[in-house]
Design a protein that fits this description.
Length: 357
């Protein structure tokens, strides 16, 4: 590891930047009425809903029922690109809407709430990040998907949690030194897995950062037969207890494929909808975010993801407001870093299919 493997945090989020988690409360009648109305709006406007696994079940069900899509951020972008719909309504957070626009400049991209952001994106402002990159010109810049379009435009590569280890391993094998941003926990995990020479930006996901190692140990002692599934944005002491460390897609796959009936899950609890759908017979337990050592703020549900709901979705389809735009030159440069990942993952899957054949 480089002597300067981590970086003094040049920017930290203030408490005021973190909203409370407020989930839309609607009764069965309103839900049915809104769902009916939105289905008609989508059809009339040749629009589809592209939702993240962390959004509310109402939105995920609606996306599934109307030819839309529910997935992780990379697959959401891929689906948007392949879809014939003229409008994509991205239910997720801002960087997902921006990525959809970058990959589909000809489409109209709407979001239910433009305030839906992400602590990783907010914790890595482009001006400060750019100055840091300028100070280390001999490093390849690798950024996580959870960044603004402007930060992606400053990067050489964009990666996701499912692809970060493979990409960094490849770059390290070419003797490259790496700037990693913004998630420090994912960065530490990637560094540990690859041995790469990395300078790591000190951002964090406020949801995953709250998982508590000590309380997880206690919970595991009460459920010794349970497998522990952990997203790598979690602290190292939580990751160390995992049977599987992986992206949201990998976590959903694990619950269907692993030989266990009980799972402790350390990621946003919005994912439980798809996990339970994929494996209804399995028992899912939330990993602890509070306990003796602290109380939680987000309590395993992202405040920004929770800003998406049926009421706002219907409203945005009615008004056409909340459209996402990305400045042309930023989009052009950001697309290069995204495209590198898309090419890398399709080459990798072609190679593994050839090896399997
Ligand atoms: S769960 Fe964390 S990483 Fe995901 S959008 Fe929310 S703050 Fe960002």
């Amino acid at each position: 590891m480089s002597a300067e493997a981590t970086l003094k945090n040049p920017y930290s989020l203030s408490k005021e930047q973190i909203p409370p988690t407020i989930v839309e409360q609607i009764d069965a009648v309103e839900r049915a009425n809104l769902t009916k109305k939105i289905k008609a709006q989508l059809k009339q406007q040749n629009a589809v809903v592209v939702a993240h696994y962390y959004t509310e079940p109402d939105l995920q069900i609606l996306a599934d029922e109307t030819g839309g899509y529910v997935s992780d951020s990379l697959d959401m972008a891929r689906f948007g690109h392949e879809s014939e719909a003229e409008t994509l309504v991205v239910c997720g957070v801002k960087f997902m809407g921006e990525t959809a626009k970058i990959l589909n400049p000809e489409k109209r991209i709407l979001m239910p709430d433009l305030n839906a952001n992400c602590s990783l994106d907010l914790g890595c402002p482009e001006d400060k990040f750019s100055a840091f990159c300028d100070a280390h010109p001999d490093h390849v810049v690798v950024v996580y998907a959870n960044t603004s379009a402007a930060v992606k435009a400053r990067a050489d590569w964009m990666v996701t949690s499912g692809s970060a280890v493979d990409v960094v391993k490849q770059l390290a094998s070419e003797g490259k030194k790496i700037i990693w941003a913004p998630d420090k926990y994912l960065g530490d995990y990637v560094q540990q897995e690859t041995g790469a020479d990395m300078l790591i930006w000190q951002g964090a996901c406020i949801v995953h950062e709250e998982f508590k190692a000590q309380e997880l140990e206690t919970l595991r002692s009460h459920h010794p037969e349970a497998k522990v599934l952990v997203h790598p944005e979690s602290p190292a002491a939580v990751i160390a207890q995992a049977d599987l460390v992986g992206s949201t897609t990998a976590i959903i796959k694990a619950v269907t494929e692993m030989d266990a009936t009980k799972f402790i899950v350390a990621t946003d609890k919005g994912i439980f909808h798809k996990m339970q759908q994929a494996a209804p017979e399995k028992i899912l337990i939330e990993a602890p975010t509070a306990g003796k050592s602290a109380t939680c703020i987000s309590c395993a549900h992202c405040p920004w993801m929770a800003m998406n709901g049926l009421r706002k979705l219907s409203k945005v389809l009615e008004t056409g407001k909340n459209e996402i735009f990305v400045e042309v030159e930023i989009a052009r440069r950001a697309k290069q870093s995204i495209q590198r990942l898309l090419d890398f993952t399709s080459n990798k899957s072609a190679t593994s299919m050839a090896n399997d054949a």
